[in-house]
Amino acid sequence: MATKNTKKVAKIDIGISERDRARIAEGLSALLADSYTLYLMTHNFHWNVTGPMFTSLHALFLEQYTEQWNALDQIAERIRALGYPSPGTYAEFGKRASIKEVAGVPKAMDMVRHLVNAQESTARTGRALFDLVEKANDQPTADLLTQRLDVHEKAAWMLRSILEE
Q1: Residue 129 and residue 141: Cα distance in Å, rounded?
Q2: Any residues with CB less than 8 A from the CB of 89 and at least 6 apart, and which?
Q3: Is 100 left (phi over 0), alpha (psi -120 to 50) or beta?
Q4: Is there a contact between 65 and 42 (Cβ–Cβ < 8 Å)?
């Protein structure tokens, strides 16, 4: 007779209720989805940018997608520390992301516009979690969100500056 393989998971008691941990993990999953989508968009544009600003945009996109790539682990690992699985497939990210994929290969300045919108959208997703995180007394997630907001707002500012005449 086959037995069902069940894992016994130790109870999590970190001072945040299970309900709040679940809600925070869900919000962080949306942030992870936006972050991954932003990473992929930025990397795609790095590969495909052309035109008179090629060198500077190619380098900027490299800097931004590298930072974004490194942040993905921090977000996913925070979800795991709260006791929930991290989403990790295109299908799961597609359901959760507020950022939509860009079809084709846009012109360089359109790439910059798309990235401004994606950076700002990712910042809004993170910012939307603050009330819940503060009420749950979840300082590690608040710290992570503060760091991510700083990065996304600065990146959006730098990209917007390229668009100014």
Answers
A1: 9
A2: none
A3: beta
A4: yes
Residue 165 neighbours by CB under 8 Å, 6+ apart? none
d(CA 83, CA 24): 11
Superfamily designation of domain 18-163: Ferritin, core subunit, four-helix bundle (1.20.1260.10)
Q: Residue 149 carries which side chain, given as an amino acid letter? A: L
How would you write the pLDDT of the chain (165 residues) with one tens digit per residue? 444 544 545 788 889 999 999 999 999 999 999 999 999 999 999 999 999 999 999 999 999 999 999 999 999 999 999 999 999 999 999 999 999 999 999 999 999 999 999 999 999 999 999 999 999 999 999 999 999 999 999 999 999 999 987
Structure pTM? 0.91
